[in-house]
Design the sequence.
C-alpha cells in the first residue's frame, strides 16, 4: 500500500504517498491559507501563503505542492510560518493598488456601507437599504437630514468635473422616509432574551444606538433620559426646520419598537440614584451628552442677552416658545453647525439683522457648507476674520454693543488650520441686541459622585478635558460594568461619531454580559488606493460619464419665516436612481469573498510595510460579462491555468517577467478577441477581485443569502447557488453537487440569474377580458377551468408539460390528464413528434465522474463550448492532463470545438455518417461478437438491414470518403475506452438510435468509462420520459399498450374508466381537433421555429390555459394564465441527462398564494379527482412505475434521418431568454 | 614540418579583432610570399591578450598576444620568413619564459583540454586529440551502463553548473527510473553576469560536450538529447550544430551508435529566448516544451519526471565535457585532483579589476590567493584587493580577509558565497559593496520569472531599499528590513533564482556592514561610487584658477575668478563628476 504515516502538528496521521501536505491537512481539519491552489488544477505554488515547516527541509515549504513522505514531521502554524505568511501578504498588498471599500465607508465614523445601500436604492429596495444602514446606524432618517456627511466629502465624484460628491445623505433620507411611511417598516430580528438588563443613560444618538443594538442581542435595554422627551441634542439642539420632531419620534419608534424602554425626566445623580439602578441592571451605558454651553469668554460676557447658543436653542424646544427678535440685531459667535442653527433660527424669530462672527475665513468653517449657503440665502451676514474683544452693556446691564477685532491667519496649528492672530489696532464696535455664543459645549459630569457612591466595581473618573474617562478602544470606564459613548466621552462631536462610539461600547458591553474577554472590535484589513497615492482628478477623468448631482429641492426662501423643514427631499424614485447612478463604486465587488482580504485580516497584514513602486492599470470592461481589474491581481495564475487546463480555451496568459508581470488575454487584446467561452470559471477561481463579473447593475457588494439550486437550464444537472438579497439575485456561484463535486458551472448557470432578475413575474391568475389581462382570484380560475373541462369531451383536452418542470410537476400533470380528465392527450412541445429515438438515449451512459477514464472522445454533434460547458470542461481537462485525444465530427465547418479538438472532421449528415460507420463495422466484422451475444438482441436483423443499404450511397449522403469512415471505425473499436458525446439538440432521434447501435456493436455501451454521453436539451428532459409525458407511455416509460401497464396505473391511482386511446399529439394539434389547451411551463409560441404556424395553431383553441413564471408569448395567447413558482420555492427533483435524479429542498419563499403543484391538484379536485401530495410523496409514487432496465439491449434498425424539433430552446422561455440576453450582450 | 599558424577565433578573440588578423594572414598566405598552414582555434583562456596567434614550427609552439594587423606583418616577416622569434610579444611558449607564465602555472586542463588547441569545426581534430575514444572504449569493452555510471560516481565529479550535486548519483537515479523514454539535457543557458565558461567550451570544443552527452545517454538509457543554449551565443550554436552534423556522419549520433546495438540517440539544439530563469532546470524544461519558462516545485525531480514528464538527466556544459576524459583516463585520475569532497578541476571566468582577465581551469583545493595573485596577476593599477564575487547573482562576495579560502564546494559555501558555475568577479577598493549588491539585485529582480511572491515583489522591494541607501535616503531600519526579506525570500521561493537572489546582499552585509552603515548614517560612500553621496571640493593648494572646472560645470556650481582659487557650491552641485575628470591639476577632491 501507499499508505504512510506523517506527523502533523504533533499528531500522527495517515496519508497516501504523493498526496500534498495541504490536502492531508485539510482532511484532518487543519486549515492552511492559500491563494493560488485549486483542487482542479496542478499545484503551482506562487503565492507562498500556504507555507509550512517540514523537519529536515531547508526553509519553508509550500504545502500545496510538497508531497508527504513517510515519517515527515510537519508544522503548519508557528511564529516563523505566521511571519512568512504575513510577509507574503504584505508583499502582495504592497502592489495591490485597489480599494477594499470606497472612501465613503472608510470615512464614515460608523462605517455605514454606503456603496451597499446605494446598490439597494438603485433597485428600489428601500426597506433593505434601511436594514443595511441600520446595521451600523439606527438613525437613517435623522442622519439623512443632519449628518455632517464625511462620506460626501470623501466621495470620489468630487474629483470629476462636476466637483460635487454623490448625494449620499439625500438618498439615505429618501430610503429612510420611504421606510418610515411603510406600514411594514423595517424592524430588525432580535435574538432570544439573555435575561440580562442594561440601563442606558441618555436618549441622544449614542444612547439610542447602544440600546438598539444591545436589545437586538437579547439584552433588555432601558434608557433613562433627563429631559422630558427623548432625542437629546437631536431634539433640543437641532431646530425643527432641519429635523422635524415627527421624524425624530418616528425614528425613535424604530428603537422602542423592538422592546427598548425610554423613561424620561430621569436625571442620574438627580432624581435617579445609581445605587438603585445598580440593583436592577447588569451593565450600563453612559451617554449623557455634552450639553453645557460655553460662555463667550470675553469681558462683559455676563451681560443680559448674551447666551450660550445651545441654551437658546434648547429653551425654545423645552418651552415651545420662540423669542421675538423683531427689530433686533443678533450676533452669533462661532463657525460650527450650532452657529448655523442659531443664526438661521434667529432669522426665523424675526431678527432684523443676524451676523455670524467668525475668527477664521469661510474656508475654515467647520459648519456644513450647505448650511452656510442656505443661511446666506436667508439673509445672514458674515463677519469673517473677526473676534469679540468685549461686550458693552447699557445702563440696565443689557448688551448694547460688542467690540470686535480683525484677525489674520498665521502659521498652521496642530489641527492643520491656520491660527488666527489679532491685527493690532483694528478694534471696532458693532451695535447688537443679542449675542449667541456658539463656541462649544462641555460635558456635565455632576452624576459622578452619585455613581461612584452606588457601585463597588470601580471608580468612574473624569479625564483632563472634563469628559468621562474610558478606554478609547473598548469604551469601558473605571467601573467594570459601566461603558460610555458619545459626546460625554469624546467631547462635543457629531451624531455619527456618537453612533460609532455606541458600536464600540455595545461590543464591549455585550462581551462583558456574555462573560467574554473585553477586546476592541476586530479591525478588518482594508486595502486603500490612498496608501499608494493621493487620488487626483486625472485618475478619474474620462473614465466615467459626467453627471451632475441631483440637488436637494428646498423651500422657497420667502417662505422660510417659520420652522417648516427647509429641505424637501427628493421628489421621486427616478431622481434617486439617477443620483445612485453617480456612485463610482470605488469599493471592491469581491469584498465579501476575497481570500486576500480575509487572510490579510487574519494575519494583520500591513499594506505600507513594503511600500514602493506599484503597477497601475486601467480596468478592462471590454468583455460584456467579465471585468478585469489587474490592479487587484496577485498573479496566482489560477485564471490562466483553469482556462488552459480545464476549459481548454487558453484565453489568458502571463505577460512580461518579474515585478511587471501581468495577466492578459491573448496578444494583449480584449478577452472578446480570444477563444474565451464566457464560462466565468476565471471569475470563480480569482482569489481577489481582479476578475469579476461585469455586472449589469450596481452590485454593492452586499452580503446575500445563497439559494442552493440544481441547474434549471442545461441537462447536466450541476449544482450552484443563486445569491439572493430581498428577492433580487446579486449573482451566482458554483457549489459542490453530485454532478459537479468541484463546483464547476458553465455560463448558463453563472450568468442566467440576470434573466431571472429581468422576469416580470406574475403572482396571481390573469384572465383575458376583451383582450386585456386582469388579475383574478385562484378560486375563480379553478372554477373556470373545471367548467371548461367538464363541458368538453375528455379527448378534447390537450395537456402539455415542459422539460423545465420538476419530475413531480410533470407527473402530476399527466396524472391530471389521465386520472382526472381521463385522456391520454398528454405530451410536450419539447419532444413533440421526435421522442422515440431519444427514449433510451440516456440509458447506460458514461457518468460524468467516469469520463476522465476515457481514452478518446468522439464528439459527434455537440457544441461543448456553448451549450454544455460542464461536459466540455471534463473533456478538455482529460485532454490537458492525460492527452486524451478529442475527435470532433460535425456538420458545422466553423463549430466551436475546432481549437479544442485533435481532429476536426466536417461531415454532411450525422445520420448517414454513423450509419456508414456501423455498416463498415458490420461488413468488416469489427464488432464485438462476444458482447453482442451476451447483451444484445436484434443483431442479425440489424446486420441484414444494413446489408441492404449501399455503402457508397451512405458515404455520399454522409459527405465523406470511405477512409474517414473506416478510420472512425478503427479508432473507435481500437480504443480501450472510447466515449462518444452527442446532443439531442444537434442529433435527430434516429441518429441517436444509430449511435446507440454503434455502442452496442462495439461492446462499449454500459462499460465503465466508455460508451455514450447523451446531452439532452433541458434540465429535466429525461423527466418527461420518466414521468409519462407522452400519450403512448405511462410513467416509467411504460407503453400504455403493454400488458398490465394500464391496470397498474388504474390501481395506483384508484380510478376507473381511464382512456386507453393514444394519439399523435402533433397531428392532433396541427389538425386542430381539440377544444381546450393546457400548457404547463412551455412557451411554444415564443420558441417555435415556425412561429406563425404555431400561433395560428394555438389560436385554434376554444380555451387555453398557460402556467408559467411570466407572460410568455404563449401566455399572451391564453385565455387564462396561472402563475408558477420557481423550483427552489417548491422543492422537488430533476433527472439529469445521465438519469441522476437530484432532489432539492424548498429554499426560498414563494410569492404565490397557491403554488403550481397545489394548482394542479386543485384543478383535479374540481373535476372530481383527489390527488394531493408533497413533492416527496409524489416522487415515491412515481418510483412505483419505474421498471428495471431490461437485461438485454436491442439493436434497432432505423429508416432514415428522423424528425427535427418544432421548437427551439427546449420550448422553454428561460432558455430562450438566456440565449437572447447572452447573444445580445455579446454582440453589444 | 610545415609551419602552422593558428588564430584564436573565439568570441573573445573576434571581439578583440582576431577576424582582421585572420584575414591579414590569409591574404599573406594567398600572396604566396611564404608557405604556411593557416587554421583556427578557439579561446585558450588568455582573453586579456587577445587576439592570439600561435606559430608552430620545428622550434615548437609560440603564442603571440595582442596581435593586430601590424604585428601580423612583423610576425610573418620575422618569424615565418626569417625564422626569428619575436620574443617581445610572446605570451606563451614552451621554450621561452614570459611574464604570463604564472597564468598557466597553476592550471590543470581537463574540461578545457582542447580549447585553444584544436579547430572546433573539425571533428578530425577532436578525434586526433583523443576525441570519441571514450565512447569507443565503452563500445569495444562492452561496458554496461551501470559500469559507466559507477565510473562517474567513482570520479567524484559534482555538477559544475553550480549546484554541486554528485553527477554519478544523478545518473544513477535517472538510470533507475523505469520509463519507455528518457532524455538527456545539456544546460548551456549560461546567464550569470561575467561568466563565459560554457560559451568558451562550446565554441572551443563542442565535441567534448557531445561525447559526454552520448556517454550519458548510454549510461541512463536515454534516447533524446537537447542542448538548451541561449540564443545570445550564436557562435557556440553554430559550432554545436556543425559538430552534431559531423557526429551523425561519423555514426556517433543516430542509430546503433558506435556499433552498440540498440543504442539510438540524437541531439538537437534548442535556443533559449534570453530568460535567465531558464537556466533553472524545471523552467528550462518548461521552455523546451514550449511553455512559459517558469519553475515548478521539486519533487518530482527531473530524474523521475522531467522533460515531457519522462525521466531526464540534466547536466551543465562543463560537467558533460569532463565525462570523456574521466572514461579514458579513469575515475582515479580525475579524483587525484582536488580535495576530499570536491574532486577534479573547475573552470573559472576571471573578470573585474584583475590584471589577467580570462578563463582558467584549476584543480579544486587551490586558494583564492593563488588564482587572484598568481594566475590573475593581481589587481589592476596596483590597487587594493577588496573582494571577489563568486557564483554570480546567486553567489556572494568573499572579502579580502578570506583570500586564503580554498576552492572547494564546502569552503566556498561556508563563506556565504557559492562555487556557482564559475564566475569570479574581482573587486578593488573603488568598488562600493552596497552598489554591488544593488547591481545583482537589479539583475535578479529583472530576471525573476514573476511567479513566486517573495521573488517577484520581495527582490523589487530589496532593490528599492538598496537604491534608497545608495541615494543617501537609507534608514537605520533598512538593514533589518533587508535581512528579514532576504531570509524570507530564500526560504520561500520555488527555484534557485529566488532562493539565492538575496545572497549578494547577505554576504555584503556580513562582510561590509560598515559600508552600509556609512551610507545610511554618515551619508557617505567610502568607495566613491554612489554619486548622490559624493562631495566634490576644490583643494585650494592645487587650484591654479584655470577655470576649466567652472566652464565645464553644467549647473554653474563652481565659482571663482581666473587665477583665483575656485569654490564648489554644494547646494548646487549635482555630483556629476565632470570637474573632477576635467581638472588637470588634481585640484578637485572627491570623497
Sequence:
Amino acid at each position: 500500500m501507499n499508505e504512510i504515516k506523517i506527523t502533523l502538528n504533533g499528531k500522527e496521521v495517515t496519508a497516501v504517498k504523493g498526496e500534498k501536505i495541504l490536502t492531508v491537512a485539510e482532511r484532518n481539519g487543519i486549515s492552511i491559507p492559500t491563494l493560488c491552489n485549486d483542487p482542479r488544477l496542478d499545484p503551482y505554488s506562487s503565492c507562498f501563503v500556504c507555507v509550512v515547516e517540514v523537519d529536515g527541509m531547508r526553509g519553508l515549504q509550500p504545502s500545496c505542492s510538497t508531497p508527504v513522505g513517510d515519517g515527515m514531521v510537519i508544522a503548519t502554524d508557528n511564529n516563523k510560518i505566521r511571519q512568512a505568511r504575513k510577509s507574503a501578504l504584505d508583499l502582495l498588498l504592497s502592489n495591490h493598488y485597489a480599494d477594499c471599500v470606497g472612501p465613503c465607508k472608510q470615512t464614515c465614523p460608523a462605517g455605514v456601507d454606503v456603496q451597499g445601500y446605494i446598490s439597494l436604492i438603485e433597485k428600489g429596495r428601500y426597506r433593505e437599504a434601511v436594514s443595511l444602514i441600520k446595521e451600523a446606524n439606527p438613525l437613517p432618517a435623522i442622519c439623512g437630514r443632519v449628518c455632517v456627511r464625511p462620506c460626501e466629502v470623501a466621495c470620489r465624484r468630487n474629483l470629476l468635473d462636476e466637483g460635487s460628491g454623490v448625494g449620499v445623505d439625500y438618498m439615505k433620507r429618501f430610503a429612510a422616509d420611504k421606510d418610515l411611511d411603510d406600514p411594514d417598516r423595517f424592524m430588525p430580528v432580535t435574538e432570544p432574551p439573555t435575561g440580562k438588563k442594561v440601563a442606558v443613560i441618555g436618549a441622544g444618538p449614542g444612547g439610542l444606538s447602544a440600546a438598539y443594538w444591545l436589545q437586538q442581542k437579547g439584552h433588555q435595554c432601558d434608557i433613562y433620559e433627563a429631559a422630558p422627551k427623548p432625542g437629546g441634542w437631536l431634539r433640543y439642539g437641532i431646530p425643527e426646520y432641519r429635523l422635524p420632531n415627527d421624524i425624530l419620534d418616528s425614528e425613535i419608534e424604530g428603537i422602542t419598537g423592538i422592546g427598548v424602554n425610554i423613561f424620561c425626566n430621569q436625571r442620574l445623580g438627580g432624581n435617579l440614584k445609581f445605587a438603585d439602578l445598580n440593583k436592577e441592571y447588569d451593565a450600563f451605558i453612559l451617554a449623557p451628552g455634552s450639553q453645557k454651553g460655553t460662555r463667550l469668554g470675553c469681558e462683559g460676557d455676563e451681560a443680559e442677552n448674551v447666551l450660550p447658543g445651545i441654551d437658546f436653542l434648547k429653551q425654545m424646544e423645552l418651552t415651545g416658545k420662540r423669542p421675538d427678535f423683531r427689530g433686533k440685531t443678533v450676533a452669533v459667535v462661532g463657525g460650527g453647525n450650532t452657529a448655523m442653527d442659531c443664526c438661521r433660527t434667529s432669522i426665523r424669530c424675526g431678527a432684523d439683522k443676524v451676523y455670524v462672527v467668525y475668527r477664521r475665513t469661510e474656508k475654515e468653517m467647520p459648519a456644513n457648507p450647505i448650511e452656510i449657503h442656505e443661511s446666506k440665502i436667508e439673509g445672514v451676514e458674515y463677519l469673517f476674520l473677526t473676534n469679540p474683544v468685549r461686550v458693552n452693556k447699557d445702563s440696565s446691564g443689557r448688551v448694547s454693543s460688542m467690540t470686535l477685532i480683525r484677525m489674520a491667519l498665521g502659521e498652521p496649528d496642530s489641527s492643520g488650520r491656520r491660527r488666527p492672530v489679532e491685527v493690532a489696532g483694528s478694534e471696532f464696535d458693532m451695535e447688537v441686541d443679542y449675542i449667541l455664543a456658539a463656541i462649544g459645549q462641555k460635558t456635565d459630569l455632576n452624576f459622578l459622585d452619585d455613581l461612584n457612591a452606588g457601585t463597588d466595581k470601580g471608580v468612574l473618573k473624569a479625564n483632563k478635558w472634563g469628559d468621562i474617562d474610558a478606554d478609547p478602544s473598548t469604551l469601558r470606564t473605571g467601573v467594570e460594568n459601566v461603558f460610555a459613548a458619545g459626546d460625554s466621552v469624546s467631547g462635543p462631536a457629531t451624531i455619527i461619531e456618537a453612533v460609532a462610539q455606541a458600536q464600540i461600547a455595545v461590543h464591549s458591553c455585550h462581551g462583558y454580559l456574555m462573560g467574554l474577554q473585553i477586546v476592541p472590535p476586530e479591525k478588518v484589513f482594508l486595502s486603500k488606493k490612498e496608501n499608494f497615492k493621493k487620488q487626483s482628478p486625472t485618475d478619474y477623468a474620462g473614465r466615467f460619464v459626467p453627471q451632475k448631482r441631483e440637488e436637494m429641492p428646498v423651500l422657497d426662501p420667502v417662505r422660510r419665516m417659520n420652522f417648516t423643514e427647509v429641505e424637501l427631499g427628493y421628489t421621486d424614485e427616478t431622481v434617486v436612481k439617477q443620483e445612485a447612478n453617480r456612485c463610482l463604486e470605488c469599493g471592491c465587488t469581491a469584498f465579501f469573498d476575497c481570500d486576500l482580504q480575509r487572510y490579510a485580516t487574519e494575519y494583520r497584514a500591513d499594506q505600507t510595510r513594503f511600500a514602493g513602486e506599484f503597477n497601475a492599470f486601467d480596468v478592462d470592461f471590454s468583455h460584456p460579462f467579465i471585468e478585469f481589474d489587474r490592479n487587484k491581481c496577485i498573479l496566482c495564475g489560477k485564471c490562466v491555468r483553469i482556462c488552459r487546463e480545464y476549459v481548454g480555451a487558453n484565453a489568458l496568459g502571463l505577460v512580461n517577467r518579474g515585478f511587471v508581470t501581468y495577466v492578459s488575454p491573448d496578444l494583449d487584446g480584449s478577452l472578446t478577441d480570444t477563444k474565451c467561452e464566457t464560462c466565468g470559471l476565471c471569475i470563480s477561481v480569482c482569489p481577489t477581485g481582479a476578475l469579476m463579473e461585469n455586472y449589469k447593475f450596481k452590485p454593492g457588494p452586499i452580503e446575500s443569502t445563497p439559494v442552493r439550486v440544481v441547474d434549471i437550464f442545461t441537462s447536466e444537472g450541476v449544482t450552484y447557488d443563486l445569491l439572493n438579497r430581498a428577492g433580487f439575485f446579486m449573482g451566482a456561484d458554483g457549489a459542490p453537487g453530485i454532478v459537479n463535486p468541484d463546483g464547476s458551472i458553465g455560463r448558463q448557470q453563472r450568468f442566467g440569474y440576470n434573466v431571472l432578475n429581468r422576469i416580470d413575474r406574475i403572482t396571481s391568475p390573469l384572465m383575458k377580458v376583451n383582450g386585456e389581462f386582469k388579475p383574478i382570484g385562484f378560486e375563480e380560475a379553478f372554477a373556470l377551468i373545471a367548467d371548461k373541462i367538464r363541458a368538453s369531451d375528455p379527448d378534447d383536452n390537450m395537456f402539455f408539460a415542459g422539460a423545465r418542470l420538476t419530475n413531480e410537476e410533470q407527473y402530476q400533470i399527466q396524472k391530471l390528464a389521465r386520472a382526472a380528465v381521463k385522456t391520454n392527450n398528454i405530451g410536450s412541445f419539447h419532444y413533440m413528434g421526435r421522442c422515440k429515438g431519444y427514449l433510451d438515449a440516456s440509458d447506460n451512459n458514461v457518468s460524468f465522474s467516469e469520463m476522465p477514464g476515457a481514452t478518446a472522445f468522439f464528439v459527434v454533434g455537440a457544441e461543448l463550448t456553448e451549450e454544455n460547458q460542464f461536459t466540455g470542461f471534463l473533456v478538455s481537462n482529460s485532454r490537458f492532463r492525460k492527452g486524451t485525444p478529442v475527435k470532433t465530427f460535425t456538420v458545422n465547418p466553423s463549430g466551436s470545438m475546432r481549437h479544442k479538438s485533435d481532429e476536426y472532421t466536417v461531415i454532411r449528415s450525422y445520420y448517414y455518417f454513423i450509419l456508414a460507420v456501423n455498416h463498415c463495422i458490420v461488413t468488416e466484422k469489427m464488432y464485438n461478437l462476444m458482447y453482442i451475444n451476451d447483451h444484445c438482441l436484434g443483431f442479425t436483423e440489424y446486420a441484414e438491414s444494413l446489408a441492404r443499404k449501399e455503402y457508397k450511397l451512405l458515404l455520399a449522403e454522409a459527405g465523406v470518403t470511405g477512409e474517414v469512415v473506416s478510420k472512425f471505425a478503427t479508432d473507435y473499436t481500437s480504443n480501450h475506452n472510447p466515449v462518444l458525446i452527442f446532443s439531442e439538440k444537434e442529433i435527430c432521434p434516429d441518429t441517436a438510435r444509430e449511435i446507440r447501435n454503434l455502442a452496442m456493436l462495439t461492446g462499449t455501451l454500459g462499460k465503465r468509462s466508455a460508451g455514450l454521453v447523451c446531452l439532452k436539451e433541458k434540465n429535466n428532459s429525461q423527466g418527461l420520459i420518466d414521468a409519462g409525458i407522452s400519450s403512448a407511455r405511462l410513467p416509467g416509460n411504460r407503453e400504455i399498450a403493454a400488458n398490465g401497464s394500464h391496470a397498474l396505473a388504474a390501481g395506483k391511482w384508484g380510478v376507473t374508466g381511464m382512456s386507453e386511446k393514444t394519439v399523435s399529439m402533433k397531428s392532433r394539434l396541427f389538425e386542430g381537433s381539440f377544444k381546450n389547451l393546457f400548457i404547463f411551463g412551455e412557451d411554444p409560441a415564443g420558441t417555435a421555429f415556425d412561429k406563425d404556424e404555431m400561433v395560428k395553431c394555438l389560436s385554434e383553441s376554444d380555451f387555453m390555459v398557460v402556467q408559467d413564471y411570466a407572460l410568455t408569448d404563449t401566455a399572451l395567447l391564453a385565455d387564462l394564465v396561472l402563475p408558477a413558482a420557481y423550483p427552489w420555492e417548491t422543492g422537488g427533483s430533476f433527472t439529469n441527462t445521465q438519469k441522476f435524479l437530484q432532489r432539492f429542498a424548498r429554499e426560498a419563499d414563494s410569492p404565490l398564494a397557491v403554488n403550481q403543484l397545489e394548482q394542479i391538484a386543485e384543478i383535479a379536485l374540481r373535476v372530481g379527482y383527489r390527488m394531493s401530495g408533497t413533492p416527496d410523496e409524489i416522487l415515491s409514487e412515481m418510483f412505483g412505475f419505474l421498471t428495471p432496465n431490461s437485461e438485454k439491449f436491442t439493436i434497432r434498425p432505423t429508416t432514415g434521418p428522423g424528425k427535427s424539433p418544432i421548437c427551439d430552446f427546449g420550448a422553454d422561455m428561460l432558455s430562450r431568454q438566456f440565449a437572447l440576453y447572452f447573444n445580445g450582450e455579446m454582440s453589444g | 614540418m610545415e609551419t602552422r599558424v593558428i588564430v584564436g577565433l573565439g568570441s573573445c578573440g573576434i571581439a578583440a579583432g582576431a577576424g582582421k588578423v585572420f584575414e591579414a594572414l590569409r591574404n599573406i598566405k594567398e600572396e604566396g610570399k611564404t608557405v604556411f598552414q593557416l587554421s583556427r582555434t578557439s579561446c585558450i583562456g588568455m582573453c586579456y591578450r587577445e587576439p592570439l596567434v600561435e606559430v608552430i614550427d620545428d622550434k615548437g609552439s609560440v603564442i603571440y598576444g595582442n596581435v593586430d594587423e601590424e604585428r601580423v606583418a612583423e610576425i610573418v616577416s620575422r618569424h615565418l620568413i626569417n625564422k626569428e622569434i619575436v620574443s617581445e610579444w610572446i605570451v606563451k611558449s614552451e621554450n621561452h619564459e614570459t611574464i604570463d607564465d604564472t597564468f598557466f602555472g597553476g592550471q590543470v586542463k581537463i574540461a578545457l583540454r582542447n580549447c585553444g588547441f584544436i579547430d572546433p569545426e573539425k571533428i578530425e581534430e577532436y578525434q586526433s586529440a583523443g576525441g570519441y575514444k571514450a565512447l569507443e572504449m565503452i563500445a569495444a569493452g562492452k561496458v554496461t551502463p551501470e559500469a559507466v555510471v559507477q565510473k562517474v560516481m567513482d570520479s567524484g565529479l559534482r555538477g559544475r553548473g553550480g549546484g554541486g550535486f554528485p553527477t554519478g548519483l544523478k545518473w544513477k537515479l535517472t538510470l533507475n527510473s523505469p520509463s519507455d523514454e528518457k532524455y538527456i539535457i545539456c544546460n548551456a543557458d549560461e546567464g550569470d553576469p561575467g561568466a563565459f565558461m560554457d560559451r568558451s567550451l562550446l565554441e572551443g570544443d563542442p565535441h567534448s560536450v557531445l561525447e559526454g552527452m552520448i556517454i550519458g545517454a548510454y549510461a541512463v538509457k536515454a534516447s533524446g538529447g537537447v542542448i538548451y543554449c541561449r540564443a545570445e551565443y550564436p557562435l557556440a550554436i553554430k559550432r554545436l550544430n556543425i559538430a552534431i552534423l559531423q557526429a551523425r556522419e561519423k555514426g556517433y549520433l543516430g542509430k546503433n551508435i558506435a556499433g552498440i546495438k540498440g543504442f539510438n540517440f540524437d541531439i538537437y539544439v534548442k535556443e533559449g529566448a534570453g530568460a535567465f530563469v531558464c537556466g533553472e532546470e524545471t523552467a528550462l524544461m518548461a521552455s523546451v516544451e514550449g511553455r512559459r519558462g517558469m519553475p515548478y516545485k521539486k519533487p518530482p525531480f527531473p530524474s523521475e519526471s522531467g522533460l515531457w514528464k519522462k525521466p531526464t538527466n540534466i547536466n551543465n556544459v562543463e560537467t558533460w565535457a569532463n565525462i570523456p576524459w574521466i572514461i579514458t583516463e579513469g575515475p582515479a585520475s580525475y579524483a587525484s585532483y582536488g580535495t576530499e569532497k570536491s574532486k577534479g578541476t573547475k573552470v573559472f571566468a576571471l573578470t573585474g579589476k584583475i590584471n589577467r582577465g580570462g578563463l582558467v581551469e584549476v584543480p579544486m583545493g587551490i586558494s583564492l590567493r593563488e588564482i587572484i595573485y598568481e594566475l590573475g596577476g593581481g589587481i589592476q593599477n596596483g590597487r587594493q584587493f577588496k573582494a571577489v564575487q563568486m557564483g554570480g547573482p546567486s553567489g556572494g562576495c568573499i572579502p579580502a580577509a578570506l583570500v586564503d579560502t580554498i576552492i572547494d564546494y564546502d569552503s566556498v559555501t561556508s563563506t556565504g558565497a557559492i562555487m556557482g558555475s564559475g564566475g569570479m568577479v574581482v573587486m578593488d577598493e573603488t568598488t562600493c559593496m552596497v552598489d554591488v549588491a544593488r547591481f545583482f539585485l537589479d539583475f535578479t529582480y529583472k530576471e525573476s520569472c514573476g511567479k513566486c511572491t517573495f521573488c517577484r515583489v520581495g527582490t523589487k522591494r530589496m532593490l528599492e531599499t538598496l537604491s534608497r541607501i545608495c541615494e543617501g535616503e537609507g534608514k537605520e531600519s533598512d538593514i533589518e528590513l533587508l535581512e528579514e526579506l532576504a531570509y524570507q525570500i530564500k526560504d520561500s521561493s520555488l527555484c534557485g533564482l529566488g532562493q539565492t537572489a538575496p545572497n549578494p546582499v547577505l554576504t555584503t552585509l556580513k562582510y561590509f556592514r560598515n559600508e552600509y552603515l556609512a551610507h545610511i548614517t554618515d551619508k557617505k560612500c567610502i568607495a566613491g561610487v554612489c554619486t548622490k553621496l559624493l562631495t566634490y571640493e576644490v583643494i585650494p593648494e592645487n587650484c591654479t584658477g584655470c577655470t576649466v572646472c567652472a566652464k565645464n560645470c553644467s549647473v554653474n556650481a563652481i565659482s571663482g575668478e581666473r587665477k583665483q582659487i575656485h569654490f564648489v557650491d554644494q547646494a548646487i552641485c549635482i555630483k556629476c563628476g565632470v570637474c573632477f575628470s576635467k581638472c588637470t591639476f588634481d585640484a578637485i577632491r572627491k570623497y
